[in-house]
Design goal:
Layout lengths: L5 H19 L19 E5 L4 E7 L5 E7 L5 E8 L5 H5 L3 H14 L6 E5 L4 E7 L2 E7 L15
Length: about 160
């Protein structure tokens, strides 16, 4: 039987809780990464990258502002950012890339390099950054291979 310190046990519990909260939060995504974008009623839009993409902003049922980044050429979602009092359902935002994220997060946790209040998970196809604490969450998720020409990771705010 493997034993672990209280610190390791606390980190494991926090990690399990975070994955549970991220995977099962309310307010489903309008479209997942890689899917054709849908624009919710009342959503604000603006152009980025010299017209290479657009940002569709809306507030979910929990009061969190979500920005969907949509490529102009294909009309697909290549990134999400969020900020607000509750985590969005990250698994729903990631869609078919959620399994990649979960396996990369588990590998990161196994090395002990995961953080309590912030994490960056580099999957094979998706990158997810999350941070915050109760009632103040921020994050972003993107598909590096799908970033349109003229749009950089720094534009995802």
């Amino acid at each position: 039987m493997k034993t672990c310190s209280l610190t390791q046990a606390g980190r494991a519990a926090a990690f399990a809780c975070a994955l549970n909260c991220l995977g099962f939060a309310a307010a489903p995504a309008r479209a997942a990464l890689g899917d054709t974008a849908t624009v919710p009623a009342g959503a604000a839009q603006r152009s980025i990258g010299g017209g290479a993409g657009r940002v569709v902003s809306y507030v979910d049922d929990n009061g969190t502002t979500i920005n969907a980044y949509v490529g102009s050429a294909a009309g697909t979602v290549f990134a999400y950012t969020w900020q607000g009092p509750a985590q969005p359902n990250v698994g729903a935002l990631l869609g078919r890339y959620a399994a990649d994220w979960r396996s990369a997060a588990a590998a990161l946790h196994a090395t002990g390099r995961n953080g309590l209040h912030a994490a960056r998970v580099d999957g094979a196809q998706v990158v997810v950054e999350t941070a915050g604490h109760m009632r103040a969450y921020v994050g972003r998720a993107w598909l590096p291979a799908a970033l349109p020409a003229g749009v950089s990771v720094g534009d995802l705010q």
